[in-house]
Design brief:
- The chain is mostly helical.
- The protein has a single domain, classed as 3-Layer(aba) Sandwich (Peroxisomal Thiolase, Chain A, domain 1).
- It has eleven helices and four strands, in the order H-H-H-H-E-E-H-H-H-E-H-H-E-H-H.
- The strands form two sheets. Strands 1-2 form a two-stranded antiparallel sheet. A two-stranded parallel ribbon has the order 3-4.
- The longest helix has 17 residues.
- The model has no long low-confidence stretch (mean pLDDT 94).
Length: 240
């Protein structure tokens, strides 16, 4: 990836995020911050206004992910920070400070996909991860309204996860570990609710109880998440 925050790659065509930037413009206005921090930061601002979430809740997510990264030798950064250090770091776009944002990253991911017969034949049962369900969802034109939370894909997450749980014949209560897309701490919070890890609007209480880390109901992003592990875009999806 190129140095610095994501920017325009081609200037001779419309950018895919045009409709997202319409939401940014129509809600909080365009600032000089990197485009992605505006999109996801504004989702956090909307969540605070709608549900009473505090900036500390997003900072607690970042603190947790930085702490988890210390156990991952492949993480881009393996530094632990206090909640105070995270909240006092340079503000990128309210409520996101630098330590709540994913870094620019290079990296790769690979998966070897085989049949169950192959696993048994080669005695790989202790190494294999069984895929019980896989789903994909997208947004349709016009669904965002002026909601930054919708623009960040919460509705897509709800549809895809509902279908996946039904296909796997499981519920969210059968889950123990979750790796989710924390490009920014605000996105991790709204994804908690999209996946059904907690009720809508209750992510702040979920975080305060410690239900997103060891000793709680789920362990979310034990890898350190994109905030620490790194976010080399396409490789991120396969790694998840």
């Amino acid at each position: 990836m190129e140095r610095g925050s994501l920017g325009l790659k081609w200037t001779d065509r419309a950018i895919p995020a045009d409709r997202l930037m319409d939401v940014v413009s129509n809600t909080y206005g365009i600032s000089g911050a990197p485009m992605t921090t505006q999109i996801f930061g504004n989702a956090g601002r909307e969540h605070m206004e709608k549900y009473g979430t505090k900036p500390e809740h997003f900072a607690k997510i970042a603190e947790k992910n930085h702490r988890h990264s210390m156990n991952n030798p492949l993480s881009q950064f393996r530094d632990e920070y206090t909640l105070e250090q995270i909240m006092n770091a340079k503000m990128v776009h309210e409520p996101l400070t630098k330590l709540q944002c994913c870094p620019t990253s290079d990296g790769g991911a690979a998966a070897i996909v085989v049949s169950e017969d192959y696993v048994i034949k080669h005695n790989l049962q202790d190494k294999a991860v069984e895929i019980l369900a896989m789903e994909m969802a997208t947004d349709m034109p016009g669904v965002y309204g002026n909601s930054s939370i919708k623009a960040c894909g919460q509705d897509m997450t709800i549809r895809a996860s509902d279908k996946a749980f039904k296909k796997a014949n499981l519920t969210v209560n059968d889950v123990q570990v979750v790796e989710l897309h924390d490009c920014f701490a605000t996105n991790e919070l709204i994804t908690y609710e999209g996946l059904g890890l907690c009720p809508m609007g209750k992510a702040g209480e979920f975080i305060d109880r410690g239900d997103n880390t060891y000793g709680g109901k789920f362990v979310v992003n034990p890898s350190g998440g994109l905030i620490s592990k790194g976010h080399p875009l396409g490789a991120t999806g396969l790694a998840h």
